[in-house]
Amino acid sequence: MAGDRDLAGRTALVTGGAAGIGAACARALADAGASVIIADRDGDGARRVADELGGRSWQVDLLDTAALESLQLDCDILINNAGIQTVAPIEQFEPAAFRRILTLMLEAPFLLVRAALPHMYESGWGRVINISSVHGLRASAYKSAYVAAKHGLEGLSKVTALEGGPHGVTSNCINPGYVRTALVQGQIADQAKTHGIAEDAVVEQVMLAHASIKKLIDPADIGSLARWLAGDSASMVTGASYTVDGGWSAS
Q1: Which of 185, 172, 179, 187 lies closest to 211 in space, CA to CA?
Q2: Which of 121, 142, 146, 242 is catalytic?
Q3: H helices of the chain, where?
Q4: What is the DSSP code (8-state) at residue 168?
Q5: Do the bridges between strand 169-176 and strand 35-40 make them parallel or antiparallel, or are there none, so unpaired?
Q6: 146 catalytic, yes or no?
Q7: HSE toward the beta carbon, residue 45, CA cutoff 13 A
Q8: Cα distance between residue 32 and residue 117, in whole Å
Q9: pLDDT band of 195, cuts 50, 70, 90
Q10: What digits encode the pLDDT tens for the residues 36-53?
Q11: Looking at the keywords, is Oxidoreductase present (predicted)?
């Protein structure tokens, strides 16, 4: 699809777009001609990516859901990507941390979809792409909030697909395994402590234990799939979940 500019004239909003998967998705969409809006709590990071891609930045705290309730978005493509992680057994999981993850990774995507659909419906075209996880389809110990949020996001995506279909709007999930990002790197110490192993053993013994391809995923691989889902060639693809996990979910 190199050189294919079929997203020219479309506006894409990417949350958590300052780095990692979000930045990779923004680059892929911009390469296809889309005008990108990089939304992130990290305003400087969002501006750097936006400047690189000739787009705009939006410094926003998606945990402030009250500010999102009256929001109106004029975007054609919405990528819900922002996320955080906490690793702990249920009996030690702080309730505030649980609520924080559910707010950022389920309630905020709902509010953004709610804000984006009127414009998409009016124009008769829209793409909602939710960066879910293998943990939206499977479970792992010590990740109760993350797994719950991603399972909820899967449901939200399917309902959006059913409601949006008659209006030309598709909604799909991308379900990565462990991607080479700061979010994954940042949980290694917690994983080591919780599992009782050395930090340098976490990637092999925990993160890649169930994958047949033993390496962390490149964020650009997720961006490529998001770019395809956003294009006209995927106009009949909706309500689906696409694993990019090195074979983890096949085990």
Answers
A1: 179
A2: 146
A3: 20-31, 43-53, 65-68, 95-102, 108-123, 144-164, 182-186, 188-195, 202, 219-230
A4: T
A5: unpaired
A6: yes
A7: 13
A8: 22
A9: confident
A10: 999 999 999 999 999 999
A11: yes
